[in-house]
Amino acid sequence: MEERVLTAKGAATRQRIVDGAALLIREQGVVNVGLDDIRAATATSKSQLFHYFPEGKADLMLAVARREAEQVIAEQMPQLGDLTTWRKWQAWRRRVLKMYDEQRDGCALSALVGQLGLGDATTRQIVGDLLDRWLEYLVDGVEALRASGEIDRSVDPVRAATAILTAVNGGATMLVATDRITYLETALTEAIDDLRRPR
After folding, report:
1. For residues 54 and 62, is the Cβ–Cβ distance under 8 A?
2. What domain range includes position 119?
3. Do 100 and 135 belong together in one domain?
4. Among candidates 54, 49, 16, 48, which has minimal Cα distance to 34?
5. From CA 103, how far away is CA 110, in angstroms rounded?
């Protein structure tokens, strides 16, 4: 579907609906949230909702998926975008742990994968694009450490970044399942510390 150009007011209204829907889905789960719930929570009329989302819930859920994917990256900034020193890597690690500890099963990643699901090809593409962007930031960070001599030049940036990204996502999944952050803390710390281990 072609993207329509919205006025500033229209864009703000559409974003308010998406934000409200995302919050409801995080709190109640996608199967428990209907269009009437979203309309009530966002003070939106039926005509307004279908004006911005002509295909109804399907359109809105894709917009929520894109919003949650953006949130995953945004919530890690500015640290994720500046992994140029070991100290900054540690600051990013602390931010990730604090973020997930506070959000628990209300995190954007959990909402995106767990609540919205991966049954739709477009949603899978959104998740895939998110992980590719996230990995790119981490690869850049590993390459910066290699260039500055803070880690051995034999470290493979893509393999190392992939291990770190997997540690975050695996640890976050186990956090949601058990409500214990120790899995994420241990996996992420080990994956980052591995960057400096002798080769």
Report:
1. no
2. 68-196
3. yes
4. 49
5. 10
